[in-house]
């Protein structure tokens, strides 16, 4: 099921004409936030929000797949495969990054800023070409964990229900897991849960990116490893710094620096060494590393399946 789900994501991604569970999860989070925020102590309300959304998403997924199995095993298999595929976003991540790459290559900064603003939380209206490139590369690198490795691992451990539990936790973090005045306490549980769930997947993602850099003609696995060791711990997230530092080292570029969120300056530690300036082609290189990492994961799954057969 997991291999079929990954292949389905590679081929179709998230077609807009199909209902997507994450959309429903996002609406549930927004509704519960309105009900809980200010009604209870902020940290308690945030704990209730995180528990309700993650457990509810997992329980509903289990009910749907169990019902499908009762109707027919093939329907159960199809339901599991489709639901797992909705927790993956390899194709969607690549497509979003390339939508920034193409206008940058044409010199259309306005469109590139618009497309970048759809995938990052930082202000993009005044970013130049190198900064737009940095934003896209960082997004691809960080989401190698969130959109690919983590849901894949949780699907292997607990099929669709556990993968959906993870996707719900990750969506919570993206919506309320901010360290600002509004969400520092209310989003605390969501942020900590996401950190805990991503701890092992981020390190697996780092290993996959090292292997991808070794295979990629424009990458350096040695520099990726050195960058991981030297810089990953400087990132404010205990997990995001690993794939970002690995990609920076692999490509010989420097990520991190100054971002602005709603006009407020946020300074991040630099990751990697600036052996050359950032150019739009680095987006395509980051996408290729993601591709190779996903192929390596599929190869590992196939080898594991064959080993179980023989």
Walkthrough of the structure:
- This protein is an all-alpha fold and about 300 residues long.
- It has one domain.
- The protein is about 75% helix and about 5% strand.
- The chain has helices spanning about 1-10, 20-35, 40-70, 75-85, 90-105, 110-115, 130-175, 190-215, 220-230, 240-250, 280-310, and strands at about 260, 265.
- Strands 1-2 form a two-stranded antiparallel ribbon.
- The longest helix is centred in the middle third of the chain and has 48 residues, at about 130-175.
The total tally of domains equals: 1
Strand content: under 5%
Give the uncertain stretches in residue-range form. Answer: none
Largest sheet: 2 strands, antiparallel
Order of helices and strands: HHHHHHHHHHEEH
Secondary structure tally, helices: 11
Search tags:
11 helices, two-stranded antiparallel ribbon, single chain, 310 residues, mainly alpha
Q: Short summary of the structure?
A:
This protein is mainly alpha-helical and 310 residues long.
Write the layout of secondary structure elements.
Layout: H1 2-12, H2 21-36, H3 42-71, H4 73-87, H5 90-106, H6 109-117, H7 129-176, H8 188-215, H9 221-231, H10 241-251, E1 258-261, E2 264-267, H11 281-309
């Amino acid at each position: 099921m997991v291999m079929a789900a990954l292949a389905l994501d590679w081929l179709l991604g998230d077609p807009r004409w199909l209902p997507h569970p994450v959309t429903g999860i996002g609406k549930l989070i927004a509704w519960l936030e309105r009900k809980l925020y200010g009604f209870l102590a902020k940290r308690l309300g945030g704990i209730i929000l995180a528990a309700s959304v993650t457990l509810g998403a997992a329980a509903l997924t289990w009910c749907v797949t169990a019902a499908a199995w009762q109707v027919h095993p093939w329907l159960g298999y199809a339901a599991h495969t489709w639901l797992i595929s909705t927790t993956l976003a390899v194709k969607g991540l690549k497509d979003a990054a390339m939508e920034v790459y193409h206008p940058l290559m044409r010199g259309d900064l306005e469109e590139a800023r618009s497309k970048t603003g759809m995938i990052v939380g930082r202000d993009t209206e005044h970013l130049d070409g190198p900064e737009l490139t940095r934003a896209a590369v960082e997004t691809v690198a960080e989401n190698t964990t969130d959109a690919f490795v983590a849901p894949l691992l949780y699907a292997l451990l607990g099929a669709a229900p556990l993968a959906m539990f993870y996707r719900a936790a990750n969506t919570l973090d993206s919506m309320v897991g901010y360290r600002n005045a509004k969400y520092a306490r209310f989003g605390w549980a969501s942020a900590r849960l996401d950190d805990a769930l991503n701890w092992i997947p981020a390190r697996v993602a780092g290993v996959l990116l090292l292997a991808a850099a070794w295979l990629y003609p424009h990458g350096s696995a040695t520099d990726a490893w050195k960058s991981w060791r030297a810089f990953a711990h400087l990132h404010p997230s205990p997990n995001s710094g690993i794939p970002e530092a690995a990609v920076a080292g692999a490509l010989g570029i420097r990520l991190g620096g100054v971002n602005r969120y709603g006009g407020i300056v946020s300074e991040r530690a630099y990751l990697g060494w600036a052996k050359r300036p950032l150019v739009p082609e680095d987006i395509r290189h980051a996408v290729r590393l993601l591709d190779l990492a996903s192929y390596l994961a599929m190869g590992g799954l196939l080898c594991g399946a064959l080993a179980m057969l023989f």
